[in-house]
Design goal:
Length: 371
């Protein structure tokens, strides 16, 4: 449950005294965390709304789109035998290519007989061959980087390459650690290691200290009053969730909310404690920024993400969905027209001519037809 407390987590300037560098940094970090948490809540809200609207409006149209693509392949199949041999071969290539894409990416299992007819092998055999070819290419690439595979390794299984890479990485890490262990560390290096260990220990203690203060106040086990025990149980759930998430910001907010502390009390924090607070808050900012990026982006840098397509800017969600619906309806109209046109052999011959030209252009591309 998200806190509804509106107190600002900030060190107040008392009696006109200027804030120290650490205090200003603390205020900057807490403001940034507050802003990022709000952005995350707003992003999750708009994404939920967008997904619901897309499911209601666009998914039915998308299903119809792939149904039409499948129907076009059956139309082409019926026209296949009436074409000259050269055109039959090229049309079979197109049908099997498109059927494979619809089966693999969109689950159009009903196209398997059509694929097998024009590919002249079972779908499973084709997949095994493709995986084997991909595996051979991967093997060559791995060997270039000195990663050897077992003679009887299954090259069609992606886990084969994952496990080989992990073995190589573990072996190199072990060798590195062995070399490091043999080197005699200087007093300065030993001092630095000890300092880092102590700092990590102090940071852990910082969160634990804030947690223990709240637990001491709100643990419900010793509470006699049933209503108060229920209230403290809910508070403890929030405290525990914040602690398990290493959410120092939320622990500080809970202190303000339930201990009736004034945010100015943070001015009393000693510099050493403030230093560790700032380090933890900076780490939390990095995590929140990464979480926000994950929500708003996708793995393909060449394509807009779901968020960018429908939720940018959030107030144009309905307009963005309407735009995509209009675009999809135009696609459906074009597919309907193509389905009808493919009933004519002359149209198929023209299509195959353009298909051959497109393949030639792709083959000449420096990217080998990837774009």
């Amino acid at each position: 449950m998200e806190s509804t407390n509106n107190q600002v987590i900030a060190i107040q300037n008392k009696a006109g005294k200027e804030l120290s560098k650490l205090q200003k940094q603390f205020n900057n970090y807490t403001r940034r965390v507050e802003k990022l948490k709000k952005e995350l809540r707003d992003t999750e809200t708009i994404l939920d709304k967008a997904r619901q609207k897309v499911n209601e409006t666009l998914l039915p149209l998308e299903k119809k789109k792939f149904d039409l693509k499948a129907e076009i392949l059956w139309v082409l199949d019926r026209q296949h035998d009436a074409l000259p041999k050269r055109d039959r071969e090229k049309l079979s290539e197109f049908i099997s290519e498109q059927a494979h894409m619809l089966i693999e990416r969109f689950g159009k299992e009903e196209l398997k007989p059509l694929f097998e007819k024009h590919e002249q092998k079972s779908f499973e055999e084709h997949e095994q061959e493709m995986n084997q070819k991909t595996g051979e290419t991967m093997k060559q690439m791995f060997e270039m980087f000195g990663i050897d595979l077992d003679e009887d390794a299954d090259l069609s299984d992606v886990n084969t390459f994952k496990e080989a890479y992990e073995r190589k990485a573990e072996s190199e890490q072990a060798r590195f650690e062995e070399r490091q262990a043999k080197r005699k560390k200087t007093p300065k290096q030993l001092e630095k290691e000890e300092k880092l260990k102590q700092e990590a220990h102090n940071i852990t203690k910082t969160v634990q200290s804030a947690y223990r203060q709240l637990v001491k106040e709100f643990h419900p086990d010793r509470e006699q009053n049933s209503i108060e025990r229920e209230r403290k149980t809910l508070i403890m759930q929030r405290i525990t969730a914040a602690y398990e998430a290493d959410d120092l910001f939320e622990l500080l907010r809970l202190q303000l909310e339930y201990n009736q502390k004034d945010s100015g009390d943070f001015a009393l924090l000693p510099d050493e404690q403030l230093k560790y607070y700032n380090k933890l808050l900076k780490e939390q900012i990095n995590e929140l920024e990464d979480e926000l990026w994950q929500l708003q982006s996708n793995d393909n840098p060449f394509q807009p993400s779901f968020y960018q397509t429908f939720c940018t800017p959030p107030e144009r969600l309905d307009a963005n969905i309407k735009r995509e619906v209009t675009h999809m309806k135009k696609e459906l109209k074009t597919l309907e027209e193509e389905k009808k046109a493919f009933e004519e052999p002359a149209y198929i011959k023209q299509f195959l001519k353009e298909y051959r030209q497109m393949q030639k252009q792709m083959a000449k591309s420096p990217f080998g037809g990837l774009f």
